[in-house]
Input
Amino acid sequence: MQALRIYLEHISKTFIHGVKGRVTAVDDVVLDVFPGELLTLLGPSGCGKTTTLRMVAGFENPSRGRIFFGADDVTGLMVNQRNLGFVFQNYALFPHLSIFENVAYGLRVKKLPGPEINRAAGEVLRLVGLEGYEQQFPNQLSGGEQQRVALARAIVIRPQVLLFDEPLSNLDAKLRVRTRGEIRRLQKNLTITSIYVTHDQEEAMAISDRIAVMNQGRIIQIGTAEELYFRPRTQFVAKFIGKINTLPGRVLETVPDGFTLTVLGHSYRLSCPAPPKSASGETKVYVRPEMVQLTSELSSAHFQARIVERTFLGEKAEYELEAGGCSLWATAPTSAQQETFAVQQVVGVRLSAEHLLLLEEEVFA
Amino acid sequence: MSGNAATASLSAKHAGKLRDPALFLSVAVIWVFLAVFILFPLVKILILTFEKDGQPSLAALLEILSRKSHYTAFWNSLLLGGLVGVAGTVLGFFFAFTAVRANLPKRWTAFLDLAIILPLISPPFTTAIAMIFSFGPRGLITYELLGMRGFNAYGLHTTLFAETVTYFPIAYLTLKAILAGIDPNVEDMAFSLGASRWRVFRTVTLPLTVPGLANSFLLLFAASLADFATPLILAGNSFPVLPTDAYLQITGLFDLKGGAVLSFVLLVPAFVVFVLQRFWVSRKTYVTITGKSGAQTEIKSVSPVVSRLLLAICILLSLLIVYFYVLLFYASIVMALGANHNLTLKHYRVVFTEGVKAIQDTLLIAGVGMFLGGVYGVVVGYLVGKKRFVSRAAMEVVSMVNYSLPGTIVGIAYLIAFNSPPLVITGTAAIIIAAYVFRYGATGIRTTVAILQQIDPSIEEASHSLGAGTVTTFRRITIPLILPGLFAGLGVVFIRSMTAISATIFLVSIHWTLITVRILEKMTELELGVAAAFSVLVVAVVLAGTSGIGLTLRRFRQPGAPSMSSILGG
Output
């Protein structure tokens, strides 16, 4: 079956909240999910990602805007007319039906002949590694097994679209990593266009083709994990994905293909358009902790810093530093070649201009 | 922009209403039933109370209240209710604490449960009969054992004792659920902070139970307020109470209006209890069932010595209950308890000859009533618990009214309401069945609502996402999941149809009568042996019926669905 494209055309969702009055949960979202792609909606709780997903499913109706599966406008269709698979956070297995009957449910609804149901359900259960569990009931299974039943139940009906609502959040850390690998493998093999909702940035980066970062009902930025990590457009994206340092900077002057700025007394030349200049030239400069180079050779350093805290994390160590009245973080691999530093030691810091980011601040109405 | 959104959501709402004509229809039908069988009779009582010669008037009310005997009866009812509330709650807490916290061996818990369930499934005056046998003029204990002459078995003391024994199981079930819901880890925490056992009990366990204690007090107060059979047999002339008063006013003096006014007077405290329970106790509950259990921990809050002491006391009390029932059985197979102890089946011969009509009527009414009541409970429970419609909250409250009111009021209200057109069903089986369905079907409603609250909405959404429509989802997912609610409704309506008397005593006729009414008649005719035989029969039938339903319930039981005994609790 040909994978299809999902397109959200300016959809919004407003509802009346008992205390807060009118709440806009989803605000003018445009989203183009390519055929066969797994796209993740990532954001903090309350950002509208689940509401968006539930509108794609048809559990909620958008207040405005339209939803397309391929060329078909599905906005007015009931969920049971959309031919999709939905994997719930709490699995939502039917407690009174056996594992086999849970998986067979969608096929029975389609009134497929018995032998066909047996074959398809058996095949999918084999695919998720649950052969032999057919006659058990949901409450006899572990959380991970239940989630696999939920997945099997969703894919057995050969949906055009797969939707995942934080499917791994009830599993422990190890199982989460393993299960997300299985979900990704199945989704790729079946090439079903999928939307996946999570608030876990690591999970999003591991599983997705592309990620749409959401905040306060809007999509802030869409891109691959690398794009979002190395070229975040806004402070929110930079802070939500990975860890980032905020340092005070001052724009000195604009030059033909960029501008110069000083950070903690050292000046850097950036080759990108200067930010709109404020009266004082003050600006915030962002840099990822792993781009902060530490050295014991103070002479070659851009500026000096004192180690406040060192946390050993196995393959890397994390340093909390204090420099010129502001604190910053640096991480360094703990490989044999690498220097290590002691608490209270004064070290030299080097930053390279191409790792310095100047970001938009979000302004929300 | 906001204007557009408002229009959009408005039209969506409107569309939703039109999309579900089945919902509209079923809500309308249920409201018709509620109006006819719950609101209309109560309005009739109010009209009869506050009207004289077609004019609004307080005359009837003032006249009744000015009579000293009624005035005394009112205060006696409150006093009795208060005392039963306190005594039953203390006793119930004692049993509940022992069962939950004393590390009892399984078989002892089972024994306690059995002893406690007996009063719950018996006709309301079985304890009263056993009390007469034990403490009456020729009582087994007072006369034979202690050789007392002239011990007065009638009055507040015996009524209080009999009602406490009859109703404390309600307190037990309420408090047991609350105590079991208190995570022992909370007590462990207090121990870890250095508190002694007594201090933990005083500062942690007891305060967490306070809302349950209040609730149990109110339940028992209401039960006592509604009980008219026990005072009729035990209270005697020295201690008149309102329900008995109202009964005598109607059956003895054929004064419908006086009965209505008296039941209105009874309505006031009953209504206060109803309001307190709904809007005060329910907000004060700390313990919620999360389904998440803390780490398993051994209960340390009771020392082994205290545990053994608690168990001993509970067993003694349970033995007393069991003794009552053994005595009842014994009285049914001897010539005349206290006078002639030769074994005989003559009482049962009476039961199965002249009593056959009552038995047939009761079984028929219970059978039909249980079916209708079960369906009624599930339908209303589903609407109230799952659907959104205008008047949903009102429907929930109204459907609980007959259940919360003393049966005497409901009985008198039905008698007044259905005695004259537009709807004349006095003297038929229909009026008795309606009384049971709309009174005890409420249990099915509550169970269904409780089950629906535990079913995550995503389960039905999952069914929709797999291509199933509303009807398929309802048939294949929702119905199987709320089936336990149906059985709970069936069970309770069946048990109450077999055992209740307070409402239906006013509704029986020569065409349709009930076993419980026959028991009462035999009591007043002093044919105690036959009354005992009838009671034994009822207990046996109810035990058989409930175990049957219990077994079926277990077959369909979902995790988290309430068990039979907790449904009986109130």
Observations:
- The interface with chain A takes residues 2, 4-5, 8-9, 12, 456, 458-459, 461-469, 472, 476-477, 480-481, 558-559 of chain B (CB under 8 Å).
- Strands of chain B lie at 51-52, 55-56, 334-336, 340-343.
- Chain B has a mean pLDDT of 78.
- The first helix of chain B runs from residue 2 to 19.
